[in-house]
């Protein structure tokens, strides 16, 4: 058992290492599984559909999955083999709703501090990854070394060690940066923080019946949605540095609609692109947009 926390007058929450979180009724002592602490994601279908309609089926990455007992939640256990982008399709009363799922870019980073013979009662870390709150990241002393494991996205994070309440730079970190307050912070770099700057997509030509985007950083996976319905990848033309696809004919019958493009490369995600349409033509003049154009 890792933690026990009161929830209400009748229920407590119990956290178990490697097992998840359970609710326990204090009268019956009966445990009920609440959520997993493993690499899993609970997808609440109510976030993507209006009301509580009967769900006909749910398909995740071309495989049919079963919602939970309340028919409004799907749990996906992440795998290293998952593509960077996956498609969740929800069918309700014959209507289709597609949702793009992005594989987490979080990485586990081992943080270690060697006290070099000194004795401390508490060692913590405060930084950009925990809101600069030391109590959120407590290190454990084992075999003379203080350590903990962080789970963070790729990027650069400033931080400081907090030794019995006293802040200091991390002696094991070779990089420090000005904190703009007369001091310095240590800098943690996770993965390739600048990869997102090199991997991106942007509109290139919106003048014809097809949309042409320029691509940088060699993205290899694309998902295109029109009004939350995925377009057939067979209609895409992928060339070095470019992606093109035709605007759906149905868009010409809609006063306003929108296209969203998602892309990913072998080592990460690209930015997304949203293109508002007016009767199927890309709307490039922002003065023509109104508050009613929620998706734009």
Overview of this protein structure:
With 296 residues, this protein is mostly beta strands. The protein is 1% helix and 51% strand. It has 1 helix and 28 strands. The chain has one helix spanning 195-198; strands at 3-6, 11-16, 20-25, 31-35, 40-44, 55-60, 63-65, 73-77, 85-92, 95-102, 107-113, 123-127, 140-142, 145-152, 155-163, 166-168, 176-178, 184-190, 200-205, 210-216, 221-226, 229-230, 237-239, 242-246, 256-265, 268-269, 273-278, 281-282. Strands 21, 22, 25, 26, 27 and 28 form a 6-stranded antiparallel β-sheet that branches. Strands 12, 15, 16, 17 and 18 form a 5-stranded antiparallel β-sheet that branches. The radius of gyration is 24 Å and the shape is globular. The two termini are 48 Å apart.
How much helix, percentage-wise, in residues? under 10%
Annotation, overall tally of beta strands: 28
Dominant shape: globular
Major beta sheet, specifics?
6 strands, antiparallel
Radius of gyration: 24 Å
Sheet-strand content, in percent, reads over 45%
Mean pLDDT: 84
Output the number of helix runs: 1
Low-confidence blocks of residues: none
Helix/strand order: EEEEEEEEEEEEEEEEEEHEEEEEEEEEE
Measured distance between first and last alpha carbons: 48 Å
SS-derived structural category: mainly beta
């Amino acid at each position: 058992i890792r933690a026990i926390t009161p929830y209400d007058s009748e229920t407590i929450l119990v956290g178990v290492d490697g097992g998840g979180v359970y609710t326990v009724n204090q009268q019956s002592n009966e445990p009920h599984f609440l959520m997993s602490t493993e690499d899993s994601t609970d997808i609440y279908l109510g976030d993507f559909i209006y009301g509580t309609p009967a769900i006909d089926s749910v398909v995740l990455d071309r495989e049919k999955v079963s919602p939970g007992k309340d028919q409004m939640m799907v749990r996906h256990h992440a795998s290293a083999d998952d593509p960077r982008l996956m498609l969740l399709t929800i069918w309700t009363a014959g209507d289709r709703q597609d949702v793009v799922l992005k594989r987490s870019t979080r990485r586990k980073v081992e943080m270690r501090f060697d006290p070099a013979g000194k004795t401390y009662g508490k060692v913590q870390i405060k930084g950009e990854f925990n809101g600069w709150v030391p109590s959120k990241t407590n290190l454990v002393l084992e075999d003379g070394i203080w350590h903990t494991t962080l789970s963070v996205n790729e990027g650069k994070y400033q931080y400081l060690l907090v030794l019995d309440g006293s802040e200091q730079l991390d002696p094991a970190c070779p990089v420090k940066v000005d904190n703009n307050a007369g001091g310095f912070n240590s800098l943690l770099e996770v993965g390739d923080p600048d990869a997102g700057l090199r991997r991106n997509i942007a509109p290139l030509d919106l003048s014809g019946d097809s949309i042409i985007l320029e691509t940088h950083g060699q993205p290899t996976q694309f998902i295109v949605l029109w009004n939350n319905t995925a377009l057939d990848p067979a209609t895409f033309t992928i060339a070095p540095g470019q992606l093109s696809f035709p605007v759906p004919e149905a868009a010409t019958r809609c006063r306003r609609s929108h296209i969203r493009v998602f892309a990913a490369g072998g080592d990460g995600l690209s930015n997304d692109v949203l293109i508002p349409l007016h009767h199927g033509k890309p709307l490039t003049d922002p003065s023509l947009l109104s508050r009613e154009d929620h998706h734009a």
